[in-house]
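Work through what follows:
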Amino acid sequence: MLSVNVQVKWLMEHLLKMQIKTKDKIVQAVLRKMDNRSIIGQKKYGQTMQDEIETGKKDLHMFLTDVQEEIMDALLYIEAAKRCLQDEVEEAMLKQIEVHDEKEL
């Protein structure tokens, strides 16, 4: 196995070669987040997703299960966000009513 220093050097050389051509700031931000997420995953699990395929640690069924679980988590986050939004809308409406009532006095 390669030493950490050799792996970091290899990674840095390849990252420097990769050029993001889009001028879209949103796409650039998402790509940076994906890259950071990948680094976190590599530190957490000690290998890349490609390594998991090549070593046989994960197969197609396992990856599909991961996707399914992530989608279920995403649905929960969406529901929680909707509830937060609803709370914020209700608070804003109450403030508008209060301001309107104060103006009438």
